[in-house]
Design a protein that fits this description.
transmembrane helix; MFS_trans_sf; membrane; MFS transporter; single chain; transport; 74% helix
């Protein structure tokens, strides 16, 4: 068997091709995922759960947003296992088609008025498929980027798939804003919302042709060369040896995603544009504000990956969480003014903290786990963080508002989640630049926590 390529033998053009493929593919996947979340509070609460009265329809609609997160761990287990056994590349192709297929079918679904209870059942089924796919996509995408990178560029290369997430929000919000102009008022509810879902079919084809030409991760090639595809079950090793690390790192992402899902989960869009709510802004204006904030989120995410290669992942996160706490505290007070300039300011400033607590995540997670179980560790930790954080954040926010009639409790919820993320980041030791190859497995397996006794080499 030929010797697998080392990082030093990988050309710059190949590294850039990998980053482009993972970034674009991830953007397409998250376009699908965020499109559902945005439409849940704008359309599905009326067309799929319309018989429910008052705010209950919106709560149930947001519940379906969170429901898919409960399936993310299953997707992470499956994808992590097969990515550690068969490779990162094959998992990326499967998740791309699963997500895109489910999204396209959502655009063809009947409504409750025409199909009765069958309509929400089919909707929830397709959302579950989206959840499994999302749970499997992220880990393989970030490892393809990070494991192809040189040690001093992991943060920047790993920021590629991270940028794909706000890019997905940008595309979904942008397409919805355009359709709101092309199909205003009732036309949006009748047929306009379907077009963005049907466009997913074309995006999947684009993603396929981009990803098909990318080489497998060099770290996985090394694992396959040395027979580690036959190693003990990665999930068992992860849960028996690294459970405290998984939980701590998951809470870091939960601190980010709880706040991030105020927009990516569709809550701000629904809250600010509700004609019977306290703000009652035009739907198109709110969608445009979210679209602009997705651009700034992308920029700050990319900056976070870049700067983390110089100051470290931990320092980048700590600064980010401090800014995120400020942004979370100011979010609803500014939105509640009803002034569109204040809404823009709130969403844009919020993306500063969200970007800095997201851009370095790929590199940080990859540097936490040893090579033979890395895909499983990264995928499970990310999925668990999603469940603990963003999964039901929109539903919790809607429930808190319904129960109290104010956004004060929502603000407390967001600030608390951010503070927990800050504390968990403080507990971890900086691991920037740690070797990722199989020959350094012993070093990769220890010294994760700042206050644990450090083991010398």
């Amino acid at each position: 068997m030929n010797k697998p390529p080392t990082k030093s033998s990988i050309s710059t053009s190949e590294r850039r091709r990998v980053v482009a493929a993972t970034t674009i593919g991830t953007a397409i996947e998250w376009y699908d995922y965020f499109l559902y979340a945005a439409v849940a509070g704008l359309v599905f609460n009326k067309l799929m759960f319309g018989p429910l009265e008052g705010g209950l329809a919106s709560i149930v609609a947001f519940l379906t947003v969170g429901l898919s997160f409960l399936l993310r761990p299953l997707g992470a287990v499956l994808a992590g296992h097969f990515a550690d056994k068969l490779g990162r590349r094959v998992v990326l192709m499967v998740t791309l088609f699963a997500m895109g297929g489910a999204t396209t079918l959502i655009g063809l679904l009947p409504t409750f008025d025409s199909a009765g209870i069958l309509a929400p059942i089919l909707l929830i089924t397709l959302r579950i498929i989206q959840g499994i796919s999302a749970g499997g996509e992220w880990g393989s995408a970030v490892l393809m980027s990070v494991e192809h990178a040189s040690a001093d560029k992991r943060g920047l290369f790993g920021a590629g798939p991270q940028v794909g997430v706000p890019a997905g929000l940008l595309m979904s919000s942008g397409v919805l804003a355009i359709m709101n102009l092309l199909a205003p008022g009732e036309a949006f509810l009748e047929w306009g919302w379907r077009i963005p879902f049907l466009l997913s079919f074309l995006l999947v084809l684009v993603g396929y042709f981009i990803r098909i030409g990318v080489d497998e991760s060099p770290v996985f090639e090394e694992l396959a060369e040395r027979g580690h595809q036959e190693a003990p079950r990665p999930l068992r090793v992860l849960l028996t040896r690294y459970l405290p690390l998984v939980f701590t790192a998951a809470l870091i992402f939960a601190g980010n995603s709880t706040v991030g899902y105020m927009t990516t989960g569709g809550y701000i869009q629904s809250y600010a544009s509700n004609p019977d709510g306290p703000v009652a802004l035009d739907r198109g204006v709110v969608l445009t504000a979210v679209t602009v904030s997705a651009v700034t989120w992308m920029l700050f995410t990319l900056f976070a990956g870049f700067i983390s290669d110089y100051i470290g992942r931990r320092a980048t996160y700590l600064v980010g969480f401090v800014l995120q706490i400020i942004g979370a505290a100011a979010l609803f007070p500014l939105v509640n003014t009803g002034n569109i300039g204040a809404v823009y300011a709130a969403l844009i400033f919020l993306t500063l903290g969200i970007g800095l607590t997201y851009g370095a995540q790929s590199a940080m997670y990859a540097e936490l786990f040893p090579a033979p179980i890395r895909a499983t560790g990264v995928s499970i930790t990310y999925a668990l963080g999603s469940v603990l954080g963003g999964a039901f954040a929109p539903m919790i926010a809607a429930t808190l508002f319904e129960a109290t009639g104010t956004t004060f409790a929502i603000t407390g919820y967001l600030v608390t989640a951010s503070f927990i993320g800050l504390i968990c980041t403080f507990l971890l030791r900086e691991r920037k630049g740690i070797p990722l190859g199989l020959e350094h497995e012993t070093e990769q397996s220890r010294d994760h926590f700042r206050f644990s006794k450090r083991v010398s080499s």
